Amino acid sequence: MLLNLIRNGLSFEMVAGMAASVFVLLCTLPAHEFAHAWASHKLGDDTARLGGRMTLNPFAHLDPVGSILILLVGFGYAKPVPVNIRNFKNPKRDMALTALAGPVSNLIMAFLFLLISGIPRYMFPNGGAFAVMFNYFFYYAALINVSLAVFNLLPVPPLDGSRIFTAVLPDKFYYRLMQYERYIAIALFILLITGTLSGPLMFLSRLVFKAIYGLASLPFAPFK
After folding, report:
1. If you count Cβ atoms within 10 Å of the first and of the last residue's Cβ in the chain, which end, N or C, has fewer?
2. Which of the residue ranges 1-5, 45-49, 182-186 has the most confident prediction, judged by mean pLDDT?
3. pTM given for the model
4. How far apart, in whole angstroms, are the C-alpha atoms of residue 179 and residue 156?
């Protein structure tokens, strides 16, 4: 949104998009991290809860660089939630479930936001500027949540997808992969900044968004 603002100037749609980005940073990104902490707690590990991460307070979760990336390119991250897999009964399975909780929370929020965005669009088709802004805001909030879910499901360390993927890997491959986690994270950051990953991520995000949008539109079908 910020890059488009620099290129094209301020517009009605751009204001809604930027407001949605800030909303995601302060409200839904913390919900993503809360979901990790809550799942970890339910599965037997209280590391995140005792560390103050089982909260919706955004300042407990936001990472400066990850937050800027969300504003610039729509994909980003927060501070990793600490997890001690030794506290899990089934370490690999429970780690995968804890990792999956974050992206799933984003997809659920995207669905809810699209439901909300449909209210003025179908109930009040001539609702004016407020209805349009309302629709844009929740539409973009849903889109960013889908983008975050897709991005975090990539099977690349340190993203959530790597924790899910490694649940099916033999231990020797898992530990070897974790040895290079820092270098892989640096490479991922470079790919994001240069825009190399933007095309594939946007393509996947659009597919997922289209499916969720279709489901969220079903309750409003009688109003069409």
Report:
1. C
2. 45-49
3. 0.85
4. 13
Q: What is the DSSP code (8-state) at residue 62?
A: B
- Least confident interval from 77-81, 92-96, 142-146: 77-81
Cα 201 to Cα 82, 87, 195, 222, distances in angstroms? 26, 34, 10, 33
Give the gyration radius of the chain's Cα atoms: 19
Which SS3 state, helix, strand or coil, does residue 137 take?
helix
CB-side exposure of 189: number of CA atoms within 13 Å?
12
| 124 vs 136: CA distance, rounded Å | 15
What are 43's two structure tokens? 């599965």
Active site residues: 33
The larger pLDDT score, comparing residue 155 to residue 212, is at 212
What is the residue-wise DSSP string for 161-216? Answer: HHHHHGGGS-HHHHHHHHHTHHHHHHHHHHHHHHTTTHHHHHHHHHHHHHHHHHHH
- Using the structure block, give the residue that is written with the tokens 């995140």: 48
Mean pLDDT calculated for residue range 133-155 = 90
Cβ neighbours, 10 Å, residue 51: 12
Residue 33 and residue 38: Cα distance in Å, rounded?
9
First to last CA, the chain: 31
Higher pLDDT pick, 123 / 110? 110
The confidence score (pLDDT) of residue 50 equals 95
